[in-house]
Design goal:
By secondary structure, this protein is α+β, with helices and mostly antiparallel strands. The chain has 14 helices and 14 strands. The protein is elongated.
Length: 379
């Protein structure tokens, strides 16, 4: 039996360190640990909500275990994690909470039992910078054995390697952040997916859009539309674009309108495949397709003060410029601000001259790009 454990550990350790250099492999590492521990699901995560899901992806965990991106851990479990600042040792819920009390916990009744989960094995993996604690969670299923000493021993053996690899990953994240910053400068909501359709990066605009949960959301790295019919079309479109170049089919991307429960105009999504010879295909976080999502209902919110600095507009011209970019007519603006229409038209001509544009469409495009640059400066 001892040699079997050694075989499991030896096969997993190199994969763990490979994942430190290629974050796309973390899910495979989690799956391997689950198989070795006879667990049916698992997750590497952090208690820092700013990094959830981040580079450390969930592995098929039910959404009921999470709340606003944080693990929905019972108070005694979270307290136990807080007390384990270093990697390991692992513990099961039964080691922490008497079985009679455990069955009465909302975490057990609402977060585990309805999803066929009968046990947890939790391992602290050290600190995640200054903001949180890393952890590994393994789930035991109703049809399998409850997780016990076997899972605890394996998790304890792997904990130092997982902790070290995650620290390497965290340090390398700064270099990856340069690419992320470049995408954040793109005003259009941009979402990068891999060949499996899993989200690998969403720029700042996309993160805001996804947080609104109105027409498009992201759960466990998968994109979700508002209705089953649109969801099926979205999944097929992403799968076709992501797999086309790898399969040599050369199929193009496509477009899709995403209805919104709020009743606002639908989001407009365009999916573009990444060519097989593109470096992104073999990057540390491989990208197979890119989604560009436009929100027709989104108003520009360019700060007037910034427009005064950038283009030399007067305070009034700056306010008028934003209103024009959002589609208002001079008459609308005059009515809103109690001004004469003739005065607003004069201001409009002055704005066009200072910004070098000839129409409201060109003005909107310019302000949209200015917003992206300004947002980057605020980071």
């Amino acid at each position: 039996m001892a040699s079997r454990w050694t075989d499991h550990q030896l096969s997993l350790v190199p994969r763990i360190y490979e994942a430190a250099l290629d974050p796309a492999r973390w899910d495979g590492v989690v799956a391997g640990v689950c198989r070795a521990a006879d667990a049916f699901r698992g997750e590497l995560g952090t208690t820092d909500p700013a990094r959830m899901p981040g580079i450390i992806g969930r592995h098929e965990l039910p959404d009921a275990l999470f709340e606003a991106g944080r693990p929905k851990l019972a108070a005694p479990v979270f307290a136990a994690l807080q007390g384990r600042r270093m990697a390991g040792p692992s513990f099961t819920l039964e080691m922490l909470i008497p079985e009679g009390e455990l069955r009465d916990l909302p975490l057990y009744r609402e977060g585990l039992l309805p999803f066929g989960i009968n046990s947890l094995c939790i391992t602290a993996l050290g600190t995640d910078g200054d903001a949180g604690l890393r952890f590994l969670v393994l789930l035991g299923g109703m049809r399998g054995k409850r997780l016990g000493r076997r899972a605890v021993r394996l998790a304890n053996a792997l904990a130092p390697h997982l902790s070290g690899a995650l620290e390497i990953d965290r340090r390398l994240e700064g270099a990856r952040g340069a690419n992320a910053a470049a995408w954040d400068a793109v005003a259009t909501s941009t979402i990068l997916v891999d060949i499996h359709g899993e989200v690998r990066h969403a720029n700042r605009s996309a993160r805001r859009l996804l947080a609104e949960m109105d027409g498009l959301t992201c759960r466990t790295r998968q994109l979700h539309a508002a209705t089953p019919e649109v969801q099926a079309r979205l999944t097929a479109l992403v799968a076709r674009a992501a797999g086309s170049q790898a399969q040599g089919t050369g199929l193009p991307g496509g477009m899709l309108a995403l209805p919104r429960p709020s009743g606002k105009p639908p989001l407009l999504a365009s999916v573009v495949p990444v060519a097989a010879d593109n470096p992104w295909r073999t990057a540390a976080v491989p990208v197979a397709a890119i989604l560009f999502v436009e929100d027709p209902a989104r108003d520009l919110r360019t700060p007037p003060a910034a427009l005064r600095t950038l283009f030399g507009l007067t305070p009034t011209e700056a306010r008028v410029a934003v209103a024009l970019a959002n589609g208002l007519t001079p008459a609308d603006i005059a009515q809103r601000h109690g001004a004469q229409v003739k005065t607003v038209r004069t201001q409009k001509e002055s704005i066009y001259a200072k910004l070098g544009v000839r129409s409201q469409v060109h003005l909107a495009k310019l302000l949209l790009r200015a917003e992206a640059i300004l947002a980057q400066q605020e980071e």
